[in-house]
Amino acid sequence: MNLQIILAQIVPICTLTKGQYLPKMQTFFATHYPTLKKENSMRFFVSTLIALAVAVTPALAQQFQVGIRVGANISDFSLPQVPFGENSVTGGNPMVGFETSLMARINILKHLYMQAEFEFSRPSYRLKYASPEHNRVVKLHANRVELPLMLGVKIGPMSLFGGTFLRIAHNEKSSAPTLVKIEFNDSEVGLMGGLGFNIRNFFIEGRITGYPKSSVTTIVESNGTRQKVGVGRNIRYSLSTGIFF
User: Got the DSSP string for 34-61?
Assistant: First the structure.
């Protein structure tokens, strides 16, 4: 029996579900193995390995998935009043930003999965600059590259997940850099969690990401003077949608 014959009989088995094709494979080998001649055993062995790899591929594909996610975020950034002589800088109202990520998921069990992401986010902030001459709202846009890692539980069409993330790169751009600039901590580790709703390979989810309060500090610069201050709250809320392939 050559490779073409083996594949012709095994490939249709691959279209079955995981619980169906294993018994079919056992029946196939039990039927054909005793009829092989001894001198063809090596050829059969190699052909069987190739055919088995083809048959097992659907099962492996069920355990590993890749996908993409896009969405919008709002940052709740609580910056206390920072004095600079007669002037001061404080936090303002939240702004809408965006985020996107590439995802890799491993389905550990039927209802349990692990997921890693390579995420780019651009949260935006409003800051209030006050001086005796005038008050001004300064907009700050941050570009961040982060690596989230999470565990998730599937409950019907819903999923509940949580984990951590590491910020590996970032920069900030101020609409008035002379008046106000901010530098966030580098290589910050934070916590995240969320809830999702799945429709086949599509999903919609909400996330909350933040940092332990003791580790949240930032450098505020105004008119060439820099101060390091603690931040009472730095939480990002996001709503996104995506697809797994």
Answer: GG--GGGHHHHHHHHHHHHHHHHHHHHH
CB 191 within 8 A of CB 234: no
Q: Residue 25 and residue 6: Cα distance in Å, rounded?
A: 11
* Nearest in space to 95 (alpha carbons), one of 130, 139, 135, 128: 139
Q: How confident is the model at residue 3 (pLDDT cuts 50, 70, 90)?
A: very low
| Residue matched to tokens 């600079």 | 84
How do residues 189-234 score in pLDDT, each as one tens digit?
Answer: 889 999 999 998 999 999 999 877 655 678 888 888 898 888 877 8
Measured distance CA(173)–CA(96) in Å, rounded: 15
Write the CA distances from 9 to 24, 29, 127, 203, integer angstroms.
10, 11, 68, 37
Q: Are 232 and 213 in contact (CB under 8 A)?
A: yes
Contacts of 117 (CB under 8 A, 6+ apart): 69, 101, 102, 103, 104, 146, 147, 148, 149
pLDDT value at 14 more than 80: no
154: β partners = 159
Helix pair 3-10, 41-63: axis angle to 10 deg: 30
pLDDT tier at 134 (50, 70, 90 boundaries)?
confident
Phi, psi of 21 (to 5 degrees): -80, -20
> Rounded to an integer, what is the distance from CA 220 to the centroid of its chain?
30
Which residue's structure tokens are 């570009």? 143
Between vectors from CA 67 to CA 66 and to CA 70, what angle results, nearest 5°?
Answer: 155
Task: In whole angstroms, give the CA distance from residue 67 to residue 161.
Answer: 16
